[in-house]
Amino acid sequence: MNKGCLYVLITFVVLILAGAGGTLYYLKEKESTGPETFDTKKAEKTDIVLKTVANGSVQPRQEIEIKPQISGIISEIYVQAGDIVKEGDLLAKVKVIPDMVSMSNAENRLERARIALDNADMDYERNKQLLDKGVIAPADFQQFEIARRQANEEFKAAQDNLQIVREGVAKRSGGATLTKVRSTISGMILDVPIKKGNSVIEANNFNDGTTIASVAAMDDLIFLGKLDESEVEKLSPGMELILTIGAIEDKTYKAELEYISPKGVEENGAIQFEIKAAVKLDSTDFIRAGYSANADVVLDRRDQVMAVPEAVIQFDEEQNTYVEVPDGNGGWTRKDVELGLSDGIMVEILSGITEEDEIKVWNQPRFE
User: Which among 55, 194, 331, 339 is least buried, having the fewest CB atoms inside 10 angstroms?
Assistant: First the structure.
């Protein structure tokens, strides 16, 4: 036998002896280990809440963008973000920069109106003398009186139009002016995106206009979130949501589901449905607009019911549920149980055991 074969034979024998030694050691240790035992749990009264999670943010139900009624330059700003305003409060003032074409047209209109009024006055005076002398009947004179009134009104309207083009306000407006920007609702100023000296444009059919400020009622907030299509059919309006806001620690808020979108939108390869819920606030609560939030959507709940950890539940071959309790002789006996609602950690027990039973935690054996 050559040396190579001898080395292989020796290595093989060593491995066999090592395996046999390991097996003997394991058997010896097992014999020295005490009997297998298990931890136990008791049923307890608790609340079980079945929920799913929607991600989103808290937003005002009504946020209004205030826009000017006339184009120009901001001459004054009277508010800043965070201010509380009432409907009609002054937010800013616009200085009108007249458009040369519009002003020229307004001046021409005023001049034509002045000529027409002068002509109407002359006709009126001439025919008034004829009326006084009895030359014409009062019915014939009436047309000249009406024409004079119409010419006078057109002249005043032309004056107002020219003043509006120049200054944004008419003499006969009674104090109302397009240059003063006022809030259309009561609430909090969320943003003032313009500064003094900025040019602004009025809203019209061709553009949305420049936003002077955004105002919202901060006591009427909603949660806007997205929910996966696999969960949306479990929802219905009126369900309770529990909001957790990342910026506010150790506090949750309740909300009531109001709206579920009838159409899903694909996001990152999954179909998402928008939901809206009214946030319930106390008089002392204040939540800033735009905070990110998670909503635990309560699908079902049981309050103060008998429950056990799901870890103690066992299943037989027919998927019947049971637990094991001590038999009084150091062993375990089976008790069939009827389960109710589960939140994934705790499961409701409808029947089969009592709160006094010690229940085997079958998947956590230990050795004494």
Answer: 331
Which pLDDT belongs to residue 12? Answer: 61
For residues 238 and 178, what is the distance between their CA atoms, to the nearest angstrom?
44
pLDDT at position 313 over 70: yes
Angle at 333 between CA 330 and CA 337, to 5 degrees: 145
| DSSP 8-state class, residue 81 | T
How far apart, in whole angstroms, are the C-alpha atoms of residue 159 and residue 360? Answer: 95
Q: Dump pLDDT digits (tens) for 84-135.
A: 999 999 999 988 777 677 778 888 988 999 999 899 999 889 898 888 888 8
Contact present, 10 and 303 (Cβ < 8 Å):
no
What pTM value is reported for the model? Answer: 0.58
Q: How far apart are CA 253 and CA 106, in angstroms?
A: 59
φ, ψ at 62 (rounded to 5°): -130, 110
Fill in the DSSP letter of residue 273. E
Confidence of residue 263 (pLDDT cuts 50, 70, 90): very high
By C-alpha distance, which of 181, 192, 257 is closest to 222? Answer: 257
Residue-level pLDDT at 8? 56
Q: Around Cβ 183, how many Cβ atoms within 10 Å?
A: 21
Q: Which two tokens stand for residue 135?
A: 């030359």
C-alpha dihedral, 43 to 47 to 50 to 55, nearest 10°: -130
**C-alpha–C-alpha distance, residues 223 and 61, integer Å:** 9
Q: Kindly report the number of other CB atoms within 10 A of residue 261's CB atom.
A: 14
